[in-house]
Specification:
312 residues; alpha/beta; Rossmann fold; 7-stranded mixed beta sheet; 14 strands
Length: 312
């Protein structure tokens, strides 16, 4: 794959997808005060009759989505990732447990949010939603993949949680390569037989950069965008475990319960492999510049390279 180009934020891709899905009359959009930030405002401006703005009422947002889903609608509900956690019980008991299908989008996830500070930096959201039976959990790496994955939710059989990011990051895909993305299938961006680097979200472009640096030292790394954390692409994990010396997982999320945990849980029982998890250790974030904070918690290109070298 060619070098990443400058693109938009993944939240922009979510907003674009809602517009692309608007031709289907079943699609309704629900907001909890933050439509401008999650980009659902784009849909609201053109389709106000199919948009419900509930104010700061996240629990109500989820239950309204559940009610609409029970009537044959396909609801897309969004707010900040940290605020979706207020409605965890409603997602569990009001949406997933009765088998209703609505799609939650949590924007501004992770340390990458930066100056909003630790109270707004959701580093546990992916772990929380992974625990809910039947819940699909995704974290796209750029705007184009966010658009494609959101569009695939139109006829998806399960409720879902998608995390998006506020800040712009290098674009991982182009209009052609993004067509191959599927829910539940990891995207192999670069191939190598020494080590595998599995990343999600804003860390994917750093994983690609680390792989380029490693190649200059004669170390060939496979890089995977594991945008779908649940259901996990276990077939791809088995292939990687059988072909490389070890696996490095990289995520702007707690090392407890996220991508690294999901990969470790599967491989430890099915295909034991050396794994090194890079993420946010057992701590909260701080307020500061996004890159400064990522460096503070060890989410850097250099840390990925170091971890990859330990596998050899």
């Amino acid at each position: 794959m060619s070098a990443p180009s400058t693109g938009g934020a993944s939240r922009d891709g979510y907003g674009a997808a809602l517009l692309n899905l608007a031709d289907d009359p079943r699609v309704v959009v629900i907001e909890a005060d933050l439509g401008k930030s999650t980009k659902s405002c784009l849909f609201r401006e053109l389709y106000p009759e199919r948009t419900i703005s509930l104010g700061i009422a996240e629990q109500n947002m989820v239950l309204v989505a559940a009610g609409l889903a029970s009537c044959g609608k396909v609801p897309f509900a969004s707010t900040f990732a940290i605020f979706t956690e207020r409605a965890f019980e409603q997602v569990r008991n009001g949406l997933a447990r009765p088998g209703l299908v609505a799609h939650i989008c949590g924007s501004h996830g992770g340390i990458h949010t930066g100056t909003d500070g630790s109270s707004a930096q959701s580093i546990e959201d992916l772990a929380l939603y992974r625990t809910i039976p039947g819940m699909t959990v995704m974290h796209p790496s750029d705007d184009l993949s966010a658009t494609k994955l959101t569009e695939e939710l139109l006829n998806h059989p399960n409720p879902s949680y998608t995390r998006t990011a506020r800040n712009k990051t290098p674009r991982i895909y182009d209009v052609d390569t993004v067509k191959s993305i599927q829910i539940g299938k990891g995207s192999v961006l670069k191939e190598g037989d020494d080590v595998a680097i599995i990343a999600i979200g804003v860390m994917v472009h750093k994983a690609l950069e680390a792989a380029e640096n490693l190649r200059s030292d004669g170390i060939n790394a496979t890089v995977v965008d594991m945008h779908t954390i649940k259901p996990l692409d276990t077939k791809l994990l088995d292939e990687l475990a059988n072909s490389v010396s070890g696996i490095v997982t990289v995520e702007d999320h707690s090392v407890i319960g996220g991508l690294g945990s999901a990969v470790s849980e599967y491989l430890s029982e099915n295909n034991p492999t050396k794994i090194r998890k890079i993420g946010v250790d057992d701590r909260f974030g701080e307020s500061g510049d996004s890159e400064e904070l990522l460096s503070l918690v060890g989410l850097t290109v250099e840390s990925i390279e170091t971890a990859a070298r330990t596998m050899l």
